[in-house]
Structure formats: C-alpha cells, structure tokens
Amino acid sequence: MILTTTDDAWIIECDEIKDDLIGANVTVEGVVAGMNRIHADWIGEESRSS
User: Fold this and answer.
1) What is the residue range of 9's domain?
2) Cα dist. 23→26, 27, 31, 34, 48 in Å?
3) Assigned domain for 24 exists
4) Confidence band, pLDDT 50/70/90 cuts, at residue 50
5) Cα–Cα distance, 47 to 13 (Å, whole number)
6) How confident is the model at residue 48, as a pLDDT?
7) How many domains does the chain have?
8) What percent of the chain has pLDDT over 90?
9) 2 pairs with which residues across the strands?
10) Could you tell me whether strands 9-13 and 37-45 are parallel, antiparallel, or unpaired per DSSP bridges?
11) I want to staple 29 with a disulfide (CB 3.0 to 4.6 A). Which of 1, 9, 19, 42 is the partner?
C-alpha cells in the first residue's frame, strides 16, 4: 500500500492488506522502516467528528 500525505508518499508494509481503506483518510501506527517505508502495527480509518 502507498500512503500519500500533503508532503510525502510512504510505502506501508503490513501483514494484512485492508482493501476497504483504499481512498479513505487513515491513521497509521508503526515504525519507520526505511527512508520512505513504515512497518504498520495498526491501520484504521480516521474518525470523523461532527
């Protein structure tokens, strides 16, 4: 998976691919594993506040 931010693009390494998050605003928790890689421990859809 590739996560794009306003400044960068990150390659997300994870054990489980979550197709339902494609195109969604997400939060990724994990460890930087290289110059543009994150080993994700958890990925979830960003909560929406009203």
Assistant:
1) 2-45
2) 9, 13, 22, 24, 15
3) yes
4) very low
5) 22
6) 61
7) 1
8) 50
9) 11
10) parallel
11) 42
Number of alpha carbons in the 13 Å side-chain half-sphere of residue 26: 20
Whether 49 shows a pLDDT value over 60: the answer reads: no
21 in a domain, yes or no? yes
Strand residue runs (E) in 1-50: 2-4, 9-13, 26-34, 37-45
Rounded CA separation 33/46 (Å): 22
Token digits for 42? 């958890």
The reply to whether 32 falls in a domain is yes
Confirm if 29 and 42 have CB atoms less than 8 A apart.
Answer: yes
Tell me what pLDDT residue 1 has: 87
Give the global pTM: 0.72
Per the domain annotation, does 50 fall within a domain?
no
